[in-house]
Design a protein that fits this description.
Distance between the termini: 76 Å
CATH topology of one domain: Immunoglobulin-like
CATH architecture of one domain: Sandwich
CATH class of one domain: Mainly Beta
Number of helices: 10
Helix content: 25-40%
Strand order of the largest sheet: 5-6-7-3-8-9
CATH superfamily of one domain: Intracellular proteinase inhibitor BsuPI
Order of helices and strands: EHEEHEEHHHEHEHEEHHEEEEHEEEEE
Largest sheet: 6 strands, mixed
Strand content: 35-45%
Length: 397
Amino acid sequence: MKSRKNKPSNVALKVEHISKSFRLPTEQASGIKQAFINRMRGIKGYTEQHVLKDISFEVEKGDFFGIVGRNGSGKSTLLKLISQIYTPDSGKITVNGSLVPFIELGVGFNPELTGRENVYLNGAMLGFSKEEIDEMYDEIVEFAELHDFMDQKLKNYSSGMQVRLAFSVAIKAQGDILVLDEVLAVGDEAFQRKCFAYFAELKRNNKTVILVTHSMDSIQQFCTRAMLIEGGSIKHIGKTSDIALRYQELFMNQEEKQVFKDQQASNDAISCRVEFSELKDKLNFNVYIKAKSDIEDTVITFGINQDSGEQVYRWISDDMLKKKISFKKDDEYKLNVSLQNIFPVGVFSVGVRLKNGDRTRNYAIFDNIRQFEISKRNNHGWDLLWKPVEKIGIERQ
């Protein structure tokens, strides 16, 4: 009788019933005598802060796994537990492979040394030899965009420059699992694009990545699955589109939540419909938007998601048109989007969102407002992420 071979595990990270608390001092004892008296009186001198409570989840190999939550929800503590910076009070974390955390960037940097010297110092701490750092030095400086500052002492760098340099060194480290904090998207717009291009490359190469962020656009652009944490507990794990909806609901009052759930076709302020047509290698979308009152300074987001919830295309009006859009009461506006058909076989959904200019208020969210299906494979392959738009425009009807 032949013995069965154990199948290799497809799980990259397994977190089982993790809990973590911290002791916060409330008063200090002035000496041993006072500490003894406090103890006899039952005065602890600290309060227990329960940061994480019975956290369990798995990340499979090749997953781009997002973790979201409001400030104070426990995200950073969870990252440090996964990265073995903290030890859990209870539970177990299993990592299958090498893990590279990008959350304590610049640890070991010496402010009295130059940028050049710190590259070699930080590289050595990551396990690189001097010869290896020699080879990658020019690429590191090019990515960090700090050519004119490498011979200055690090203490003269801004905090953003320091993080950029640390990030540029850190991305050279090779690991099976990468843990990324959104603090990496630092600097000006050009450097942020570099960071996000790096994320996209990781995704294309099927790297296992854990990304913590407040950006629902990043979650839907890069992640295959996501998890929402609130108050130290997991509230939901699933499709990125579902997580984005649930996360945004956390910031709404009860009346806004009701509108949020009911606005697949219209709400009290805006109505929307989407027409779709396919002609040879082109996909055409006409989005008709009508406001029920005057609305100034509007940003429109047009997105396409796979059936899994993963976002594969996004267009934002103020990025592309370089201007804000205003709506007049009862006038209908048409947004036309014409894309090259480079989609694989599958079912996709269209989402349209309207916000005010500084993105602090949602006017309308129409997720899954229109579905379409690609039934046969085209010859262009799968390379849709951030493909330039063939044609796009918005006009008053």
